[in-house]
Design a protein that fits this description.
Elements: E1 3-8, H1 11-22, E2 29-35, E3 49-55, H2 59-73, E4 79-85, E5 88-94, H3 107-120, E6 129-134, H4 137-159, E7 163-164, H5 170-180, E8 186-191, E9 198-203, H6 204-211
Length: 226
Amino acid sequence: MRKVEVTAKSVEEAVAIALAQLGVTRDRAEVVVKVAPSRGFLGFGSRDAQIEVTVIEDPIGDAERFLREMFITMHMAVKVSREVSGRDVSFDLSGDRVGLLIGKHGQTLDAIEYLVNAIGNKHADKRLHFTIDAEGYRDRRKQALEYKAVKMAEKAIAQGREIRLEPMSAHERKIIHVALQGRSDVHTESRGEDPERAIVIIPSEVRKSSRKPQFSSQARVRQPAR
């Protein structure tokens, strides 16, 4: 919770100083007058106003304002709609040039989502989870990845070898893992370091054979001592 105490000649002056310090507008602040100003009598007994100003936090509003201001700066006409369910907040972007905001495999969209989560959670009491989508791209990409997971799993089984997919974000790797986690004939694991970290699909038979203990042909059996 952000708040400040300010002393000034008048309440109005104190409020203006407090708002400038907090960087918010009057509608985002709660003002409590702790000491009312007084002119005193004949110059005696005068006192300044003392107030306490607390910011009315609006993390979801902060995140949405960040998006809208970013698009204005980019000279893009983008419509922003939002849905809130508990701590999950989703923003959907639409417009003529929204494809520019998606990027290759959603990389630009992921970057925007990262920034929105940072802005929205900066002053949130409890962590919120923000997701950014653009005209249904996330669902289309999810379906494409699930289809690819099944096709590559079948290929790995048919060829009897591991198959490494292209590097993906953590979110997309999770989609692949979940798509194949119910199968007993393949296993998935992530290998490498970001940004080159990728899913490897391993047929179960290949995985089992690689785990069998290897014995050297030159190994000798040790006879028990007599």
